[in-house]
């Protein structure tokens, strides 16, 4: 018991220190001049309201507001800000007492400034929703839920404070994403499952899943004639100066989106194999039994992953139907091909991840059982 506590305590302590270091690194890398232009403010008065509802029920027009600044060198000052509401994106209808995010540029004198509303201040709501989710995990699943929260926080810190700054700094996107994905897999699975043999099986299965994904991505992207340059946002990144490795970002984005599903399948098959090993001691019997259960797991998991990718494209599909886009045009669109690449490459990797994990688990647990009998 003492060894168990020490081993896990050291693990969590080291990982926590690593997260602190990554956060400090990320904050230092992203400290750029100009971020102070966006500050929080509270509406104290609506001076003028020239807005109305358009034909679809969206509010458009212009508001003139008096806003108290809540940050920056002029914190506490009340300034006049313009709020323009557009029907497509910027629909921030302000009311007295609301907190807003302002674009504020100070001038040479106290009355020489430029201020307009950027968006609602949503940070507090986001923190509250995330904290509520973490609390729900902890209440429903107890200690396991707390461990899941720890792994989720670690994943977030790695992606936001380490992976993104390193890529922006000129690192190889594929190398960094694959390496840090393996790191996420190891830390997440150990934190949730502990230092168990089935944890090792899950890690090896997830790692093979990443390998399978890479192979399927190369094959399917070649068949569909898709490269990383086909993504719309890539042009903006090239203009912004991120030239090196920009074509690799599609590979990285799909991998990050499907990493959780790969780990789920690997954990499920590893746990199933571990449980069945008490009854089935021979490799063939153990592998066959695990695959019978694995078929059901893969059937539901693959559907979930494909529907998740399709759902992200759902509004665009509605738009195509509204415009009565011909099938020949629709099926040959680049964005449709990219969605097919996303769904099939990740789902195919997950399908092969199941038997790979079952094979590794069956071999390990069967060998262990044979040693005990011997």
Query: Which percent range fits the helix content?
Result: 55-70%
- Can you tell me the number of structural domains? 2
Count of discrete alpha- or pi-helical segments spanning 4 or more residues? 11
DSSP, total strands: 5
What is the makeup of the main sheet? 5 strands, antiparallel
- The whole-angstrom Rg is 26 Å
Spatial shape: globular
Give the strand line-up of the largest sheet. Answer: 3-2-1-4-5
N/C terminus separation: 28 Å
Which fold does the CATH topology of the largest domain refer to?
Multidrug efflux transporter AcrB transmembrane fold
Oligomer: single chain
Per DSSP, what share of the residues sits in E-state strands of 2 or more residues? 5-15%
CATH class of the largest domain: Mainly Alpha
* Overall pLDDT: 86
Order of helices and strands, N to C? HEEEEEHHHHHHHHHH
- Stretches where pLDDT falls below 50 for ≥5 residues? none
- CATH architecture tag of the largest domain: Up-down Bundle
Return the structural class. alpha+beta
């Amino acid at each position: 018991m003492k060894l168990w506590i020490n081993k896990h305590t050291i693990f969590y302590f080291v990982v926590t220190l690593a997260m602190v270091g990554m956060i400090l690194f990320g904050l230092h890398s992203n400290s750029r001049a100009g971020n102070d232009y966006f500050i929080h403010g509270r509406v104290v008065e609506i001076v003028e309201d020239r807005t109305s509802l358009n034909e679809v029920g969206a509010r458009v027009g212009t508001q003139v507001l008096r806003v108290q600044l809540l940050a920056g060198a002029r914190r506490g000052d009340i300034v006049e800000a313009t709020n323009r509401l557009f029907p497509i994106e910027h629909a921030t209808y302000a009311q007295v007492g609301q907190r807003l995010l302002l674009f504020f540029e100070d001038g040479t004198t106290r009355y020489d400034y430029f201020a307009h509303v950027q968006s609602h201040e949503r940070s507090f709501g986001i923190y509250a929703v995330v904290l509520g989710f973490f609390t729900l995990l902890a209440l429903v699943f107890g200690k396991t839920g707390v461990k899941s929260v720890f792994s989720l926080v670690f994943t977030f810190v790695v992606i936001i404070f380490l992976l993104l700054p390193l890529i922006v700094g000129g690192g190889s996107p594929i190398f960094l994403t694959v390496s840090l994905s393996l790191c996420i897999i190891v830390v997440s699975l150990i934190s949730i499952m502990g230092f168990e043999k089935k944890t090792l099986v899950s890690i090896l299965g997830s790692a093979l899943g990443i390998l399978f994904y890479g192979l399927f991505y190369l094959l399917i992207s070649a068949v569909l004639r898709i490269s990383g340059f086909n993504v719309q946002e890539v042009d903006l990144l090239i203009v912004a100066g991120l030239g090196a490795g920009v074509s690799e970002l599609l590979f990285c984005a799909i991998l990050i989106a499907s990493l959780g599903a790969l780990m789920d399948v690997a954990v499920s098959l590893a746990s199933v194999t571990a449980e069945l090993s008490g009854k089935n001691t021979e490799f063939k019997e153990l592998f066959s039994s695990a695959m019978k259960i694995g078929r059901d797991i893969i059937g539901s998991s693959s559907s979930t992953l494909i529907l998740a990718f399709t759902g992200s494209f759902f509004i665009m599909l509605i738009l195509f139907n509204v415009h009565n886009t011909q099938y020949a045009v629709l099926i040959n669109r680049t964005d449709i091909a990219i969605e097919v690449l996303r769904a099939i490459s990740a789902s195919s990797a997950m399908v092969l991840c199941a038997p790979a994990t079952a094979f590794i688990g069956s071999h390990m647990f069967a060998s262990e059982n044979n040693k005990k009998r011997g």
